[in-house]
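Slides due. Your pick:
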Amino acid sequence: MAAPDPTTIGMFVSAIGGLSGVIGILWKQIQSHFADIEKKLDLSEQRYLDCEQDRLRIWQRLAEQSGKDVQDLKSDTE
């Protein structure tokens, strides 16, 4: 069996190092995208809660103006 060529071994080591760098860069990008998605999700959840609170206030105001309970007013509109 012949000894491996040092050039071939060097090329393999270089290729492995290069691919490791590419994997590292892609990992950073994925983590960055994941962080952006988490921020957007948190913002969306907060907006949803604000919207729900506003919706409840609107129903309460309508109930006050009509002189009915909120649940009675909701059942009348459905």
